[in-house]
Amino acid sequence: MNPNLSPSRHHWQLDTDTDGITWLTLDKAHESVNSLSKSVMAELASVLDDLDANPPKSLVIRSGKAAGFVAGADIGEFDELQSADAAKAMVERGWSLFNRLAAAPYPTLALVRGHCLGGGLELALACRTLLVVDEPGTRLGLPEVMLGIFPGWGGMLRLPQRVGPSAALDMMLTGKTVDAKRARRMDLADECVPPRVMESAARMLALNPPARRRLPAMQRLLGGPLKNLVAAQARKQVARRARPEHYPAPYAIIDLWARHGGDATAAPELTERIVASSTARNLVRVFRLQERLKSFGKNADAGEFSPRRVHVVGAGVMGGDIAAWCALRGLTVTLQDQDMTRIAPALQRAYALFDKRLRDPLLRRAAADRLIPDPGGQGARHADVVVEAIYENLEAKQALFQTLEALARPDAVLATNTSSLRLEDICSALKNPERLVGIHFFNPVAKMPLVEIVGGAGTDGIALARAAVFAGALDKLPLPVKSAPGFLVNAVLAPYMLEAMRCVDEGIAPETVDEAALAYGMPMGPIELIDTVGLDVALAAGKQLGGGAQTPRCLDQRIQCGDLGRKTGKGFYDYAGGKTAKGAAGTVPAGLAARLIAPLRDRTRALVEQGIVADADLADAGVIFGTGYAPFTGGPLFDARE
Question: What is the pLDDT of residue 276?
Fold first, then answer.
């Protein structure tokens, strides 16, 4: 190839091959991941200037990074959007530039390998042909809504044109991503090829661009005469899970698509409304907190540790689901319990998970093959990580770890999933007590992103680092905490649930209590949460974490009647029909939400002061990702500072 280099360009490189194809490679300087900063966009504009003067036979845009195509806009520059004018200028810059690319008189192709998100997908959509590489890391999506903003650089225009309004709105309003094969099936991508032929396929398609497939008639109707009907239905669906006063972005996306053809520059008042709200700022904060948690999963103190084999003891709901998730994520897992009759239900739940998460039957079979029943516990000898998930009994755990310590490799991580026992008490029976760490998963394992990495007074730092790397390998968010009753998440939930039940004792209907929390922004009301975890579990947690508080009458009465919540079909609410049967909520008393949240916030602050969690930001991250605490607020402690 003949490189066409400009001394003023630091991020983009132009090369022309012997076929006359120009290859434009983005390799953002001094960064491991490509993002579309102001300087990257300015250089792209200058590249298009040069190509206008000397049009190529065809243009292929690709990434020079090992880590994906383009991750999106530069999050670091979001802090500069302090005014509506700055936000409108940013939208205008990307909208105009990508429109210019889309109107190029020569064929254009985006070669997408790895993540292609936000502005990255908008760049790819502006190309005439979109070629995706079929490998696990390839994901395409417009997740701007997760940051409280909208895809303003052409995504709201071009994604519906490619895949139809139904699929496009689903992606834009939820932030969902799709893999390479799914992208091809839904006509988001024109072709999907394996890595070994990606460049030859790009060359062939660049020289012979495929004709754009026409949308089915129904999708054309939905994007034309029936557009307002589609928008109204989309608003109803969004309203079921997000209130406009909390999350304005999805409503703005619907309006921009329905009324302005996806052109945010035509509705500056919507841009101003989004920027003026605290939601976008706070959701960007939550994104950064998430990235901080992810960084613990890449702890350099773990050395070259790369877990491949896991041994889980205890095939109950937690142990079985931990084992299933490990197998889904590609690890080889041995699952131990007393006999096969105890292991079999865990295997059935695992197979159901694989069926739900893996479309390819070969991948489902591979995941099932990686999950090995092991009643004799021989897998402990070969495991990189050993996870105990038996019932909460100190003597039983101590005896088990004495056995496991003798079996496991000296360099293996020994971990307990305890949610209530002190690490120092469990490890006191070990010859090398510093080996034991806590790896506390939350139920349901497949849905809850947070994992608490628990260290005791003498826990080895390398063991903790390796536990965090293990959690990261499972695509979880590791949060370092110190050993204390309830750690962080359970410790803050206990006073929150206790206060909710006190309200019920005072005569406030459970439905009204829950409505106050939902209106505040919580994903589930505290009373329904108690029903979900189990009233007996709530009672035990209250005794351990309630500071000697009296058991609420409403809880005691229901337990005496055997009504333990969802698992028995009845608790505060009735679940006999398989659905939550609630009465109508009454008028929410003024200040009720603040009353419910106050003990949660106070306990969170106290745990930071006690050093259970390192700082307020990590505490906010843990409460958000461990309890679902209203993300748009930025977290309970940050919310208190606002």
Answer: 78
Instruction: Give φ, ψ of 82 to 5 degrees.
Output: -90, -10
Contact between 499 and 603 under an 8 Å Cβ cutoff? The reply is no
For the stretch 424-463, pLDDT in tens is 999 999 999 999 999 999 989 999 999 999 999 999 999 9
Q: Which residues are tagged catalytic?
A: 419, 440, 452, 490
Task: Write down the pTM of the prediction.
Answer: 0.91
Which DSSP letter does residue 371 get? E
- Give the C-alpha separation, 431 to 433, whole Å: 6
Tens digit of each residue's pLDDT (9 = 90 or more) over 171-190:
999 999 999 999 999 999 99
CA 199 – CA 180 distance, rounded (Å)? 16
Is residue 248 within 8 A of residue 274, CB to CB? The reply is yes
For the chain, give percent helix, strand, coil, nearest 5: 50, 15, 35
Q: Taking the mean position of all CA atoms in its chain, how far away is CA 388?
A: 26
**Spans of the chain, pLDDT less than 70:** 1-7, 640-642
Q: Quick one: 434 exposed, middle or buried, by C-beta within 10 A (0-12, 13-18, 19+)?
A: middle
β-bridge pairing 12-16 and 2-4: antiparallel
Handedness of CA 424, 426, 427, 429 (dihedral sign): positive
Q: What are the residues whose beta carbons fall under 8 Å from the beta carbon of 475, sequence distance 6 or more?
A: 329
